[in-house]
Amino acid sequence: xxxxxxxxxxxxxxxxxxxxxxxxxxxxxxxxxxxxxxxxxxxxxxxxxxxxxxxxxxxxxxxxxxxxxxxxxxxxxxxxxxxxxxxxxxxxxxxxxxxxxxxxxxxxxxxxxxxxxxxxxxxxxxxxxxxxxxxxxxxxxxxxxxxxxxxxxxxxxxxxxxxxxxxxxxxxxxxxxxxxxxxxxxxxxxxxxxxxxxxxxxxxxxxxxxxxxxxxxxxxxxxxxxxxxxxxxxxxxx
Length: 238
Fold this sequence. Notes:
238 residues; alpha+beta; 6-stranded mixed sheet; 38% strand
């Protein structure tokens, strides 16, 4: 059994052209055929830039998928009497989630709070642990501390860790994670695998890490719908 999984930083639905169009994001996901999706930079009732929309709810409904959401930022409503203004990560799945939880990651003073969104999906009798995250963008020392917090909760269950890690191969964060999980692109990807090229230089910062499962194919999906490309990996389950 192979499971197509996708990680995608959606930039709150704002594309390279500066236009907010969440349906373009939905089209990238739908066209990929992914059955399990991790999203980063997802707004919920947060700001004018994203039209104060419930972005994870809209995408889940549009795609007919189950939703888990982690509000790493959870602020007072943008309008009196409105919904909480939230920002974070999401998981979408064609199968129901079990045991959903969010753990806030270590956060240095002045940095944006980050989190680890965890859930389980059962695929043909196999319970797959799914971890979604988005690490600090501008400090490698902070990313390394966050990565250590993630690896501290790993065990021998079949696992996929998906997300925008804001770090490149060979970094301290990448090397640390590589002591516990395998980088799918390094195993089965072809070429550079750049996922962030809206601003030079292009680099590979979006990942699908695996443990106890086997990556079969990896493919970068370029689109102007976001400032990141999506990363699709077919994962073979035990």
